[in-house]
Write a structure and sequence with these properties.
By secondary structure, the chain is of the alpha/beta class. It has helices at 46-51, 55-61, 88-102, 123-134, 158-167, 174-183, 191-203, 231-240, 262-272; strands at 7-8, 22-25, 36-39, 66-69, 116-121, 139-145, 216-222, 244-250. Strand 7 (216-222), helix 8 and strand 8 (244-250) form a beta-alpha-beta unit. It starts with 6 loop residues before the first strand and ends with a helix.
Length: 274
């Protein structure tokens, strides 16, 4: 196992194994700061979002240990048949159980290693925002990449996607077509699971005003990413709630390739080290 490889971590909910791939990445020299929860995006995985892009390597070099989970139907996690397993609320619960199992502890005054830092990208940004907003006693600092003030999955045309997959009927909605194309880029992706996740997300659409984070938060987007227009609105919500928000635009990057950016990593590592 290489130095940057994660160790599978047991994860059960009420004694039942949900068959979700949870990985814990330890540094050679611990900086004495909280663990970092990494939440990947739609149609991605721990490997694609965090390992191959260098995030795990850079966190370990900085002395940080990280916890990551492949979302249901993604990466090495199983694809449940029931829609409830894909709901944002269930995913948040699984993530919180995973970090607890791995050893994350509530924030304690005077203990710099306590608490949890959160880094999420795209769909992981939505989930990270909600975890931060509802877990003030646990979450210390938050970095969200490619976030959106609305819910792209709620606007996804599932029927059109299913028709396209069945007989090739063109998809009229550009956002739906783009998301489906992204999901099909990795041959091993489970398209059924992704459509089920989208249907579950439609039942629980994202509203950033429902649970606004009060923590220090860094919001990052590629300058060529249409979601960059959401940064100021989200920052205003955090600042208005008593938190502190900073924003970073990464020049020349779009929603697909911002995670590979050195500028993104450097900004996140500096922010999380404070």
């Amino acid at each position: 196992m290489s130095r940057h490889s994660g160790q599978s971590h047991p994860h059960t909910v009420e004694g039942v194994d949900p068959h979700l791939n949870v990985q814990v990445f330890r540094p050679e020299h611990d900086a004495g700061l909280p663990p970092v929860l990494l939440i990947h995006g739609f149609s991605s995985s721990i490997e694609l979002n965090w390992v191959n892009t260098g995030w795990v390597r850079e966190l370990q070099r900085a002395g940080r240990w990280a916890i990551a989970m492949d979302l249901p139907g993604h990466g090495s996690s199983e694809a449940p048949a029931d829609m409830d397993s894909y709901s944002p609320g269930k995913i948040r619960a699984d993530l919180l159980q995973a970090v607890t199992d791995a050893g994350a502890r509530p924030i304690q005054d005077g203990d710099r290693s306590s608490g949890l830092d959160v880094v999420g990208y795209s769909l992981g940004g939505r989930i990270g925002w909600e975890i931060a907003g509802t877990q003030r006693g646990l979450v210390r600092r938050v970095v969200l990449g490619g976030p959106s003030h609305n819910d792209p999955l709620a606007e996804f045309d599932v029927v059109a996607a299913q028709q396209y997959l069945a007989d090739g009927t063109p998809i009229a909605d550009a956002s739906t077509a783009a998301l489906l194309k992204m999901a099909q880029l990795v041959p091993s992706n489970n398209i059924f699971a992704f459509l089920t996740l989208i249907e579950a997300a439609k039942v629980e659409p994202f509203d950033p005003t429902d649970a606004v984070p009060h923590q220090d938060i860094l919001l990052v987007a590629g300058a060529e990413d249409p979601r960059s227009a959401s940064l100021d609105m989200l920052a205003s919500l955090v600042n208005g709630a008593g938190g502190h928000a900073e924003t970073v635009l990464v020049p020349g990057r779009n929603h697909t390739n911002t995670t590979t950016s050195r500028a993104f990593k450097d900004a996140a590592l500096e922010f999380l080290a404070r």
